Amino acid sequence: MAGPTDDYVRVMPAAEVAEEEIYEFEVDGELRILTRVGDEIFACDGICTHEYAEMSEGEIEDHVIYCPLHGSGFDLRTGAVTSLPAVTPLPVYDVKIVDGEVYVSRAPRGGGEA
Amino acid sequence: MSRRPVYVLLGAGVAGHFAADALRQAGFDGQVLLIGAEPVRPYDRPALSKGILQGTKEPQAIVFQPEEFYREREIDLLLGRAAVAFDPAARRVVLDSGESVSYDRLLIATGANPIRPRLPGIDLPGVHVLRSLADAEALRAGLLAAERVLVIGAGFIGSEVAASARALGREVILLDLLPAPMSRVLGPELAAVYADLHRAHGVDLRMGRGVAQLRGRDRVEEAVLDDGTRLDCDLVVLGVGVRPAVDLATAAGLAVDDGILVDEHCATSAPGVYAAGDVATWWHPALGRRIRVEHFDNAGEQGAAAGRAMAGQPEPYAPVPSFWTDQYDTTLQYYGYPVPWDQVVLRGDAAAFSVTAFYLAEGRIVAAAMLNRPKEHRSARRLVAAGAAVDPAVLANPDTDLRALSRQFAAG
Lengths: 114, 412
Prior knowledge:
The complex is a heterodimer of chains A (114) and B (412). Chain A has one domain: Rieske Iron-sulfur Protein (3-layer Sandwich), CATH 2.102.10.10. Chain A is 4% helix and 46% strand. Chain A has one helix spanning 4-7; strands spanning 8-13, 22-27, 30-37, 40-45, 59-61, 64-66, 73-75, 81-83, 92-98, 101-108. In chain A, strands 1-10-9-4-3-2 form a six-stranded antiparallel sheet. In chain A, strand 3 (30-37) and strand 4 form a beta hairpin. By secondary structure, chain B is of the alpha/beta class. In chain B, 27% of the residues lie in helices and 30% in strands. Chain B has helices at 14-25, 48-54, 59-62, 67-72, 133-145, 156-167, 183-200, 247-251, 296-310, 377-386, 392-396, 402-407; strands at 6-10, 31-36, 75-79, 83-87, 92-95, 100-102, 105-108, 112-114, 127-128, 148-152, 171-176, 204-207, 211-215, 222-225, 230-232, 235-238, 242-244, 256-257, 259-262, 273-275, 280-284, 289-291, 322-327, 330-336, 343-349, 354-361, 364-371. In chain B, strands 3-2-1-7-20 form a five-stranded parallel sheet. The radius of gyration of chain B is 22 Å and the shape is globular. Chain A: GO terms for molecular function: 2 iron, 2 sulfur cluster binding; metal ion binding. Chain A: This is Rieske (2Fe-2S) iron-sulphur domain protein. Chain A: It comes from Sphaerobacter thermophilus (strain ATCC 49802 / DSM 20745 / KCCM 41009 / NCIMB 13125 / S 6022).
């Protein structure tokens, strides 16, 4: 089993992730975002699956992240489309907290790209 | 053994696609036949006036789903076929191939057709409409060869086509009988911002003007306006609206008033027949009146609602309608009901093309339009959904925290 630094990337201290604020970061040249809803931190792709737009400019409401461009909604927990115009789910990533730091998986969770 | 029921979806556009998907998601296991007049799988129609015209998107990139999607779900696609007759008593549709298709339930999602005004010269080569992918490909080819483009009608399609033609470096004249682009829907205040936007991008705006005739020897060469002005142009785009494609339904005796009349479950006046999308005039239970909406979001969501209703899982369809328009480097998101308003409140910096417009009727917010204000989308939507009564001065005040304000109102 590989250690957290192999399959996961360290992003930021968990204590600094504010409720429904969106934090953008890069993994292997790709944009990802991080946010917190309640006690849980979520990570997903940083670009909408419909047209090019940075999801960090969007908004969070009830576990859904909305694209700033056309209002496509994605469930942060699964990546599933909750509102049009997107038809393709948003890849989501596993998050774990180690020693107070947020780690996000390099590879998307299987269900996110179904 | 009972026969497998057959559900036929007429129209393989946005509404038809999402209806087919919803039928399967709702567990319908009979036959699903999706029949479309265009020879292409269902696609993202809003991309036609932007990505396709500008050449930044290829047609194969805008189809919603690959063929496997339909195969896996056993959705039979019959493309390049249109219905020419429909008999609700016999539950049968006749196609232009002569084929007759029997159905147990039918969805009419035939959309709308562009209006071609009766103008002298309207049939000259070089005069385009934009509705289908084929229209878009022909218009793109025309734009690439054109020098001076006249867009008749500054609604959403006309305004987006004007912006795309400018992106291709063409000279563009944008003309409308109304005083500013999209003013019927957006109101004069926000429409004036769009007039500035188009002028800033070099469009020759001719507002408050109509076209008397189009002229040319072998193809369109000039337009004569209602005040006698003559404008050279080698390509004309008509963006003067659409008519819902109701002919089949009317001939079959269904109740039609503008669109095909449906209830909040997308059911028409004929048993087992549903309608959704641009073609449907529907009863909005929260609004307490009938409306017809010609936008992508409604086509998709109402198509899905119709699919669920056909599958035996009806839920009242009562959304806050929404649409967007992308022109140049701007994006506008709109949430709201197509009802009259008596006051418009602007928030933001119109000169910088960053402005939100709230539309109020008797003090309550009935719609909101956000031009380049993505962080206000959800708050504005909540205020619209709640029909919130908010002091206009508070809405206009840049220091007002819209998010906090909107959360005081119960989510609708």
